[in-house]
């Protein structure tokens, strides 16, 4: 054995021998790789071929039997389907009508004529009026809708075995193995010679592998040796091609929005970065437009997510057309086109790479607004949207994507606050406003956490005798540095940062606690508490109010809940469901700011409200605006006819009081009687008989 080991050792010292042995292994490996690839490829091709065959047969059969299916002619359908079912490449087939009742069947199928098909494939084909395909093991199932004269006549289902229409992949696998073995036996004696010429291709392969490691996959290895190395090189080429396709797909997923086919946020950010860098070098200017659709959430909730995506696709098409139209109008050869992108949700952006004048950005914004305002046709519905546009011009408003997008977003928010369907250019003051709002929201969260809020009470006075008929609970913020703040300074911020519901619940609990304490001390004063839309839309709103009454000990008859007219009329049926359990316990309800919304009288007469609160804007303008006076008169007459109480807000003059008394108003509230006051002052006010006597004699 020692001489043999010594001889083998000497042989392996030869580079030619090493490469001979290596090439033998490479040949085996390459053959195995090619065999596996061929087997997988053939299996895939078999499925593709069988799938195309099955779809073609379903289309032909659906076309030939469309008239019979529409007429439910079972005899002719049986004849046509029977001959088809005897084919060797069909396992079974059946035809259903639009109600999924099986008309005829042939071969091995699950459902008999007269039965109702529960197949999800049939349901999908009928529902979408489109071909549905599924592969179950080695069986292809196709459901194709049958159309006759433009109407759905049913669907045909065909089961096709893959093996019946394609050559088995196992045969290819065996043949490739045999070819590999034969090649090994033939070429192995010549390997020593081939190795010398193979060193060049090996170098190419090595270089290709190095390039592939640096993600350069769009290359081709050109090896023409006619041996296994060429096979290996071709395998590498196929592998690189597939990797390149995969990398491009990954790139697409990373940079393209799948709903609208527009560039996504990351792609837009990179393009803005490139364009702003070029603008800085060339001294040119451009703009970023930030778009937010108005009323899209409402439409999306109404139509559903699928239709919402279709609407977004339609918006994207219009934005592309608008941007393309603008580029063509500019007519500059070689100019970089505008870029439309979707950031997410209902937010879009447009990059204008070069502007001759900042006013051009305003013109594009106006074109966008006009384009989006035109009605959309979605599943037979005419949908109307609006859009708010914010414009940031570079390099004036920023030189990087993050800054420009932030500034354009701030400008868009200003346009939306102005009512929507408008555009705004970024101004430096918007940064300060946004910062102040951010600070305010942070301080407001601390205020809720640290119990800095307080409740003030404004009396409601009986116009008839001047007595206190109740109070309205109003929140105030006892700011550590700014002092006492009215709701107008922080309520909008509370709504935007999601604290309005928490603040509303706190005010209700605190007001019920304090008024319950007054009631135990002998002051039976009803309290009115404002309810926000967020509170009222909570499924557990009624239970929460009842829990508060039970825990605080306040009689339900001393609590009145005020809903704004817009909240009350948004979903009248839901309002009835929420109010009824509370009214059954004695809780009263009032419509706040009545006359400022859009009430439906048909619903209004059904609503279980007790009080109309006349908005102070009408009361204030009664003396100088005849229309305001007419509105007040109408509300009072309506309340009288419906046997409801009325509360006139914002009463500040004796003339206003006299008119309200003359028109039959029941309660009044305003600075003429008292400003909102803390609980201790309310007690003193209730004890002061002079104010009530003077009012009664006025």
TrEMBL record:
Annotated GO biological process: signal transduction
Tree of life domain: Bacteria
Family matches, as PROSITE patterns: EAL (PS50883), GGDEF (PS50887), HAMP (PS50885)
InterPro entries xrefs: Biofilm_reg_signaling (IPR052155), EAL_dom (IPR001633), EAL_sf (IPR035919), GGDEF_dom (IPR000160), HAMP_dom (IPR003660), Nucleotide_cyclase (IPR029787), Rev_trsase/Diguanyl_cyclase (IPR043128)
GO cellular component terms attached to this protein's record: membrane
Pfam families per UniProt: EAL (PF00563), GGDEF (PF00990), HAMP (PF00672)
Official protein name in the record: Diguanylate cyclase/phosphodiesterase
Species in which this protein is naturally found: Glycocaulis alkaliphilus
């Amino acid at each position: 054995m020692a001489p043999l080991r010594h001889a083998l050792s000497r042989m392996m010292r030869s580079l030619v021998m090493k490469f001979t042995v290596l090439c033998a292994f490479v040949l085996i490996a390459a053959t195995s790789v090619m065999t596996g690839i061929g087997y997988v490829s053939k299996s895939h091709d078999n499925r593709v071929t069988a799938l195309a065959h099955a779809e073609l047969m379903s289309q032909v059969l659906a076309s030939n039997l469309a008239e019979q299916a529409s007429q439910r002619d079972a005899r002719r359908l049986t004849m046509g389907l029977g001959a088809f079912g005897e084919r060797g490449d069909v396992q079974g087939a059946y035809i259903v009508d639009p109600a999924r009742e099986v008309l005829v069947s042939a071969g091995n199928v699950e459902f008999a004529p007269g039965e109702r098909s529960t197949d999800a494939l049939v349901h999908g084909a009928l529902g979408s009026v489109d071909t549905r395909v599924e592969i179950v093991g080695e069986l292809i199932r196709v459901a194709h809708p049958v159309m006759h004269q433009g109407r759905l006549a049913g669907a045909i289902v065909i089961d096709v075995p893959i093996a019946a229409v394609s050559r088995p992949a196992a045969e290819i696998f065996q043949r490739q193995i045999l070819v590999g073995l034969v090649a090994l036996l033939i070429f192995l004696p010549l390997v020593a010679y081939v190795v010398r010429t193979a060193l060049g291709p090996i170098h190419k392969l090595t270089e290709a592998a190095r390039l592939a490691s640096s993600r350069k996959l769009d290359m081709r290895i050109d090896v023409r040796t006619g041996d296994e190395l060429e096979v290996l090189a071709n395998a590498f080429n196929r592998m690189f091609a597939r990797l390149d396709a995969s990398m491009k797909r990954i790139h697409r997923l990373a940079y393209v929005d799948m709903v609208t086919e527009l560039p996504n946020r990351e792609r837009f950010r990179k393009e803005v970065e490139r364009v702003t860098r070029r603008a800085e070098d060339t001294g040119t200017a451009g703009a970023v437009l930030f778009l937010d659709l108005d009323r899209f959430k409402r439409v999306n909730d109404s139509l559903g997510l699928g239709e919402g995506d279709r609407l977004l696709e339609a918006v994207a098409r219009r934005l592309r057309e608008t941007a393309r139209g603008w580029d063509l109008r500019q007519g500059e050869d070689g100019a970089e086109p505008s870029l439309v992108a979707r950031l997410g949700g209902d937010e879009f952006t447009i990059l204008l790479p070069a502007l001759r004048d900042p006013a051009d950005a305003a013109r594009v914004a106006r074109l966008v607004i006009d384009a989006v305002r035109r009605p959309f046709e979605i599943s037979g519905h005419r949908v109307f949207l609006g859009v708010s546009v914010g414009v940031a011009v570079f390099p004036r408003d920023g030189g990087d994507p993050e800054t420009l997008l932030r500034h354009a977003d701030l400008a868009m928010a200003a346009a939306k606050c102005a009512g929507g369907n408008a555009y705004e250019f970024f101004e430096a003051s918007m940064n300060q406003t946004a910062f102040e709002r951010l600070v305010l929201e942070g301080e407001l969260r601390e205020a809720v956490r640290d119990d800095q809020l307080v409740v003030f009470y404004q009396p409601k006075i009986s116009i008839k005798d001047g007595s206190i008929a109740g109070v309205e609970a109003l929140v105030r913020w006892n700011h550590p540095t700014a002092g006492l703040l009215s709701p107008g300074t922080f309520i909008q911020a509370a709504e935007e940062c999601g604290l309005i519901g928490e603040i509303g619940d706190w005010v209700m609990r605190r007001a019920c606690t304090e008024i319950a304490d007054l009631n135990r001390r002998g002051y039976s004063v009803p309290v009115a508490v404002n309810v926000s839309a967020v509170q009222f839309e909570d499924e557990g709103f009624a239970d929460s109010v009842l829990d508060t009454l039970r825990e605080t000990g306040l009689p339900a008859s001393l609590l009145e809940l005020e809903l704004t007219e817009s909240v009350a009329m948004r979903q009248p049926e839901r309002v009835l469901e929420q109010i009824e359990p509370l009214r059954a316990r004695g809780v009263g309800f009032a419509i706040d700011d009545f006359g400022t919304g859009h009430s439906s009288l048909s619903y209004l007469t059904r609503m279980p409200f007790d009080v109309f609160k006349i908005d102070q804007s009408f009361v204030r303008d009664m003396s100088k605006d005849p229309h305001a006076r007419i509105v007040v008169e109408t509300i009072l007459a309506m309340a009288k006819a419906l046997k409801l109480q009325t509360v006139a807000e914002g009463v500040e003059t004796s003339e206003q009081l006299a008119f309200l008394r003359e028109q039959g108003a029941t309660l009044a509230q305003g600075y003429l009687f008292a400003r909102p006051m803390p609980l201790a002052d309310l007690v003193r006010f209730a004890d002061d008989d002079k104010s009530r006597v003077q009012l009664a004699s006025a």
